Amino acid sequence: xxxxxxxxxxxxxxxxxxxxxxxxxxxxxxxxxxxxxxxxxxxxxxxxxxxxxxxxxxxxxxxxxxxxxxxxxxxxxxxxxxxxxxxxxxxxxxxxxxxxxxxxxxxxxxxxxxxxxxxxxxxxxxxxxxxxxxxxxxxxxxxxx
Length: 145
Prior knowledge:
Helix content is about 35%, strand content about 20%. The chain is α+β, with helices and mostly antiparallel strands. The protein is globular and about 35 Å long.
């Protein structure tokens, strides 16, 4: 876990490493339970089919937009925040965080202040729709540099 974020990490949770660990981590973070990883996969497939041009190789944005959450990714290589591309934030915006460890395993990460986050991926500004502008406003001042 990157040093600059460790003080914000309250807890982490490993998920079963069966080839579906990314879906399992998201399912757990969304409150579905990690055994409901198929639901996440199906939800993401629906989102992909509706917006295929937005997501070529952009799985993190797909997670963010599928569940209308800020999706924080932490790793020793790069840590970023992905915001939804085509929806306004709900009244109480939510963030979920996933960490990469051992270069290929995903874990659920629970932050003490989920609005403290790494920088927003820069290409969000050119790819999001106008309706999603408020995500950037809500989170821009909560970055960890």
